[in-house]
Structures are given as structure tokens and as C-alpha cells.
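Quick start: read one record
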Amino acid sequence: MKLRILGCSGGIGSGSLTTAMLLDSDILIDAGTGVGSLSLDELVGIDHIFVTHAHLDHVATIPFLVDTVGCMRDRPITVHALQPTIEALTQHLFNWSIWPDFSKIPNSCSPYMQFGILSVGETVEINGRQITTLPANHTIPATGFQLDSGQASLVYTGDTTTNDSLWMIVNEIKNLRYLIVESAFSNEKKNIAIRSKHLCPSLLAEELEKLTQNVEIYITHLKQGEADLTMREIQACAGKFNLHRLVNSQVFEF
């Protein structure tokens, strides 16, 4: 497995792209603005999109992707997500007012896009690669994902705050090598992090105390303007953990 980071920022701006990751050449994990950095040939090759939740920074390019490549493909792109996430996408995005419903274009029998319903704990296998839906604790229904090549696993928490059930599962993954976890705000904005169900460095430190695995940890979803400050605060309270800042174009092979 090869996972390429297309976007990992908490917002946009020069050099900042929101969450999207390309697994091998055919699977997207979230579809924020980072997808726009792919070439047309790369976009045509995407068969599956696994979505953590319906917030715009994680789904923004799905409409453009499907619109751009739908007529170039011989099968629909499958968007995998929790049922509430699919309902949000169909009601508020692919609703003919904001964007056409490409699950019915060119027709409902042969659409450019289709949905696959996920449930927490479910594993989807695609050509020997296993993607397991993990629990998240966010303001709307949300998930994380375990990506398992058979040799090693990477866990991406998605957007989440305090989440005991996640760590119970993560600690049981025998081949875990990498962990990508969010910290959206600095400690000064801890009250905003709590209200929006994100993490800040002090909350992240409390969460990592629940982790018993020895893994490489990468921080995502940092907000512009305070990303450097947030990373300094994370390093100051990281304790035994060696934490790294996730960056665009970074590649994980496992």
C-alpha cells in the first residue's frame, strides 16, 4: 500500500489544501481541496472515495471530480460513508440546487456515482487491501479508518475529540505502524476545540496517554496562522511520543 497526502490543512490559502489522501492510485480517503492537485489521468483512475464525514473540507471536490471524469469512465465512482453522511450529501450537495445528482446521471441504471453504506467496525476489502471503519466523536456522525495492507496498518482518526472507544480498538491492532491524528486548534482556543469537537495540544496529550502502541504519529488538520504554535505546544506536551507534522505530498508505504 502507498498513501500519498494530497491535503492536510485545516483551511485554504497559498500552499494549504484541505484533507485528502490517495491510497495507491484508485482510492481516495476523504476528498477535500487537495484532490485538485491530481492530474486528469490520476482523477480518471479513482474508483472509490471513503469519506469520514460530510463537512465541506472533507468532501468539497467530490462534485467536481464526478462531473469531470464521469463521462471518461466505464463504471461509477463509489462513495463509501456512513448512512447519515450519505443522507447529508444527497440532501445538501447532490440535490440539483447546489449540484446535480450524479447518482442519477446519465441515468439511475448507469450513473457516474454510486454510494456504499458503511457501518462502524465494518471492513471493506478491495483487491487485497482492507479498510476498516473506526469510531470518531465529532459534531456530526463521523468515522476514522484503518488501512491494512496485510503487512502493516495505518490509522487515520478523522475529525474527532475525546474518543475512548477508538483507542481500545487501536491498541488491539497488532501490525499498526502509523497513526494520523488531528489537532485543529492551539491551546488558547481549547474552548473552541471542545465546542466543535476537535482536539488541541492539551486534549491530544490526554488522548495519547490511552495509546499503548509504539507507532509513528503524524498531526493533521492544523489551522493556518497558528499551525507552528500548535506544533510547538504539541511537542511540549508530547511526553514519550515523537510527533511529526503531516505535510502535503508525504508518502507512507506499508
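Helices lie at 40-44, 56-59, 62-69, 83-92, 164-170, 190-196, 201-208, 227-236.
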